[in-house]
């Protein structure tokens, strides 16, 4: 009677001991991973912050214009109003007119 | 159990009392032992169960509460920046804090001072050697260099000197240098805003609750750059002492660009005492001249005194009012319509209209439109317009913009309000902060009429602003040539434009301070190549405004259906 109880309690003790150590170990591993990841995040955040700043500085209009000048693209002018189409319909009308004009020109050349 | 008791009674009973006592003792001992054993079991069970529960809860907590953990890490993070970012309307970073260091030395920890000095000199040849030697011989901790770069820190680190200490420090970096100098302002070494937006929003920029969201301005970096560039060019072309420009959304008061030249690099701390470096748009108080004629005409139309095409007959060449002789710069026909008075910029015509309006209505209009009050804007650098003394002839001079001062910001805001349907807008540097106020200053009809008259100023033959007639943008506006208030030597040539006049969206103010006549510049004036005959706004400020509108127009997507740019295609030429 006593032995069975002792055996039972020892088994419970051992099982719990193993489970506790397993869980404790698992949580410690997780904590370590989290610490590692968070320090990685900090480094990456710092890098991102610096890269964003650099991007903002290098892509500022002043810098872009300097780069264009260094590549001999002196005139960087925006598109004029007359060169802008507001939708695909406008573009197709223009293309039709253009192709008609080309056809007329070709016909004239053929006649000559 | 009963049998056992019986046996005991027969064989071992010596004293009933004693035996009984012994039995009960044994029983209770056994029971106690048994109970103790169970108790221990329960205790152990409880102990381990509690441990397992605690650890399980901890694992669940770690896995579920990611946010808390990350925020915990953020608190320890080196990126825990004191001030929030400032970005433009497109999210482009304008200012951000960075972690940097000051390099300091603890002289007590320096073993070989001579060697240390040589090493320092190799890294920083510009450092004052004698001064550092003196400090090294002392015992006080001192800084050798503030705001060192990562490279410099690495070099100092590589010396392997215990005496060198790195003090962490946060510096504010402005990626666009001088582009936003008058708007953004600066912070001191302790990260407190001392001017501009940095000062006005100091608390908000330091708020921990808003840490992750940047302060979004209404300004546009690209437009700001284009305007800044065109104004810088204009200063050279017209040999002006300064220039300023303001671009505002007429419907919500958003300021897309605010440029005041000369400007300065806000990454450097310098004391500037020259008054020419003030923010001319918000702090500069000027007598803006003919720009005020638009207000006179708007008020006359709104009061139903005249209509757009009402002819004012027998307008004299000269009008005497008290000690003032009011004349026109050019000769105009003796009969002009209300529209023509503004188109031709007739001083005498404006005076006649103002006299018809009456002083009380004029006073009320100026009061309602906040023209002479301190301007409302998210900056502390604001000018205070001079108080008007309504003495004799005041209404007459005010009608064409003399004897009344205001800031360019207020004048542009009023143009925006007059052309957006008559709703008084409040200018703002913060993106979409304001909505149209319910306060109406003029009716929709008057607003439409004013827009169409302003268009005539630019498009008609008699108009004074033809150089701003840029194809496709339906520019309207009014010029103003005046002297700086209280300083007759200073000339202020300005132009306020509104575009597109069919459905006004933007208002652009351009001002040149003390421009000179450029005799070499050839203008394309209504298809004819010509040189400037006068040093008036029409030949410099308007010209500059035209150049600006031509360049910023495609960015603003004027006339684009629903302001969507997705189908914009370049012509195949």
Tell me the quaternary state: heterodimer
Percentage of residues in strands of chain A: under 5%
- What pair of chains forms the biggest interface? A-B, 45 and 54 residues
Number of helices of chain B: 18
**Rg of Cα set of chain A:** 38 Å
What would you report as the Rg of chain B, rounded to the nearest angstrom?
39 Å
- Amount of beta strand of chain B: 15-25%
**Straight-line N-to-C gap of chain B:** 117 Å
| Overall morphology of chain A | elongated
- Put simply, the count of helices of chain A is 3
Report helical residue fraction of chain A.
Answer: over 70%
Order of helices and strands of chain A: HHEH
Largest sheet of chain B: 5 strands, mixed
The average pLDDT value of chain B, as a whole number, equals 84
Report the count of strand segments of chain B: 17
Overall spatial form of chain B: elongated
| Unreliably modeled segments of chain A | none
Q: Could you report the average pLDDT of chain A, rounded to the nearest whole number? A: 82
What is the share of helical residues of chain B? 25-40%
Tell me how many strands of chain A there are: 1
Largest sheet of chain A: none
Task: Spell out the blueprint of helices and strands.
The complex is a heterodimer of chains A (112) and B (573).
Chain A: H1 2-58, H2 61-70, E1 84-85, H3 88-111
Chain B: H1 2-11, H2 16-64, H3 66-76, E1 86-87, E2 93-105, H4 113-123, H5 129-137, E3 142-148, H6 150-158, E4 164-174, H7 181-184, H8 196-200, H9 202-206, E5 215-216, H10 221-237, E6 242-249, E7 255-261, H11 293-302, E8 311-312, E9 318-321, E10 324-327, E11 336-337, H12 338-343, H13 347-357, H14 359-368, H15 394-399, H16 408-419, H17 444-459, E12 476-484, E13 487-499, E14 506-513, E15 522-525, E16 528-531, H18 541-556, E17 569-570
Parallel strand pairs in B: 1-5
Antiparallel strand pairs in B: 1-2, 2-3, 2-4, 6-7, 6-14, 8-11, 9-10, 12-13, 13-14, 15-16
Q: How would you explain this protein's 3D organization?
A:
The complex is a heterodimer of chains A (112) and B (573). Chain A is mainly alpha-helical. Chain A is 81% helix and 2% strand. Chain A is built from 3 helices and 1 strand; from the N terminus they run ααβα. Chain A has helices spanning 2-58, 61-70, 88-111; one strand at 84-85. The mean pLDDT of chain A is 82. With 573 residues, chain B is of the alpha+beta class. Chain B has 18 helices and 17 strands. Chain B has helices spanning 2-11, 16-64, 66-76, 113-123, 129-137, 150-158, 181-184, 196-200, 202-206, 221-237, 293-302, 338-343, 347-357, 359-368, 394-399, 408-419, 444-459, 541-556; strands at 86-87, 93-105, 142-148, 164-174, 215-216, 242-249, 255-261, 311-312, 318-321, 324-327, 336-337, 476-484, 487-499, 506-513, 522-525, 528-531, 569-570. In chain B, strands 1, 2, 3, 4 and 5 form a 5-stranded mixed beta sheet that branches. In chain B, strands 7-6-14-13-12 form a 5-stranded antiparallel beta sheet, with helices on both faces. In chain B, a hairpin with a 5-residue loop joins β6 and β7 (255-261). In chain B, α10 packs antiparallel against α18, α11 (293-302) packs parallel to α13 (347-357) and α11 runs antiparallel to α17. Chain B is elongated. Mean pLDDT of chain B is 84; it is low at 1-10, 70-77 and 560-573. Classes of the chains: A mainly alpha (112), B alpha+beta (573). Chains A and B meet through α1, β1 and α3 of A and α2, α3, β2, α10 and α18 of B. β1 (84-85) of chain A pairs antiparallel with β17 (569-570) of chain B.
């Amino acid at each position: 009677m006593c032995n069975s109880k002792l055996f039972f309690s020892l088994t419970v003790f051992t099982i719990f001991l193993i489970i506790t150590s397993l869980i404790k170990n698992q949580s410690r591993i997780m904590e370590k991973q989290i610490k590692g990841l968070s320090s990685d995040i900090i480094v990456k955040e710092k890098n991102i912050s610096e890269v964003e700043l650099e991007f903002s500085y290098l892509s500022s209009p002043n810098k872009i214009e300097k780069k264009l000048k260094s590549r001999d693209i002196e005139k960087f002018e925006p598109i004029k109003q007359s060169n802008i189409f507001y939708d695909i319909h406008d573009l197709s009308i223009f293309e039709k007119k253009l192709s008609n004009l080309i056809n007329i020109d070709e016909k004239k050349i053929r006649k000559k | 159990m009963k049998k056992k008791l019986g046996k005991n009674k027969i064989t071992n009973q010596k004293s009933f009392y004693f035996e009984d006592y012994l039995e009960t003792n044994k029983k209770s001992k056994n029971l106690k032992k048994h109970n103790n054993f169970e108790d221990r079991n329960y205790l152990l069970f409880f102990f381990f169960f509690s441990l397992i529960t605690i650890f399980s809860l901890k694992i669940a907590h770690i896995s579920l509460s990611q946010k808390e953990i990350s925020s915990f890490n953020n608190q320890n993070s080196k990126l825990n920046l004191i001030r929030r970012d400032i970005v433009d309307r497109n999210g482009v970073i304008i200012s951000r804090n960075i972690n940097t260091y000051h390099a300091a030395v603890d002289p007590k920890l320096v073993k070989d001072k001579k060697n240390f000095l040589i090493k320092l000199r190799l890294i920083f040849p510009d450092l004052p050697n004698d001064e550092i030697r003196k400090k090294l011989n002392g015992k006080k901790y001192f800084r050798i260099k503030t705001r060192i770069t990562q490279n410099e820190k690495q070099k100092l680190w590589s010396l392997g000197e215990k005496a060198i200490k790195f003090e962490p420090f946060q510096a504010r970096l402005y990626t666009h240098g001088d582009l936003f100098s008058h708007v953004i302002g600066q912070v001191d070494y302790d990260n407190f805003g001392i001017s501009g937006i940095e000062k006005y929003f100091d608390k908000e920029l330091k708020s921990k609750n808003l840490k992750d969201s940047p302060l979004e301005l209404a300004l546009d970096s690209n437009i700001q750059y284009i305007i800044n560039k065109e104004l810088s060019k204009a200063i050279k072309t017209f040999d002006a002492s300064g220039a300023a420009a303001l671009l505002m959304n007429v419907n919500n008061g958003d300021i897309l660009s605010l440029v005041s030249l000369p400007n300065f690099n806000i990454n450097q701390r310098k004391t500037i005492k020259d008054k020419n470096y003030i923010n001319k748009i918000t702090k500069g108080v000027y007598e803006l001249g003919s720009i005020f004629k638009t207000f006179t005409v708007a008020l006359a139309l709104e009061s139903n005194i005249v209509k757009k095409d009402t002819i004012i007959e027998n307008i004299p060449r000269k009008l005497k009012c008290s000690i003032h002789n009011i004349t026109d710069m050019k000769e105009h026909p003796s009969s002009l319509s209300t529209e023509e008075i503004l188109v031709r910029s007739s001083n005498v015509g404006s005076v006649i209209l103002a006299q018809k309006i009456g002083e009380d209505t004029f006073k009320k209009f100026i009061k309602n439109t906040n023209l002479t009050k301190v301007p409302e804007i998210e900056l502390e650098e604001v000018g205070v317009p001079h108080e008007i003394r309504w003495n004799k002839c005041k209404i007459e001079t005010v009608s064409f913009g003399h004897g009344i001062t205001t800031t360019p910001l207020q004048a542009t805001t009023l143009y925006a309000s007059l052309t957006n349907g008559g709703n008084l807008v409040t200018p703002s540097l913060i993106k979409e902060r304001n909505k149209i106020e319910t306060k109406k200053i003029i009716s929709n009809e008057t607003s439409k009429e004013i827009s169409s008259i302003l268009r005539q100023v630019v498009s008609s033959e008699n108009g004074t602003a033809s150089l701003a007639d840029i194809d496709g943008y339906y520019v309207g506006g009014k010029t103003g040539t005046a002297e700086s208030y209280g300083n007759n030597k200073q000339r202020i040539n300005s132009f306020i434009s509104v575009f597109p006049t069919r459905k006004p969206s933007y208002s652009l103010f351009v001002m040149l301070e003390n421009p000179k006549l450029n005799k070499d510049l050839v203008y394309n004036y209504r298809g004819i190549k010509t040189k400037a005959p006068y040093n008036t706004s029409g030949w410099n400020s308007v010209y500059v405004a035209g150049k600006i509108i031509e360049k910023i127009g495609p960015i603003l997507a004027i006339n684009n259906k629903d302001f969507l740019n997705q189908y914009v295609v370049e012509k195949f030429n």
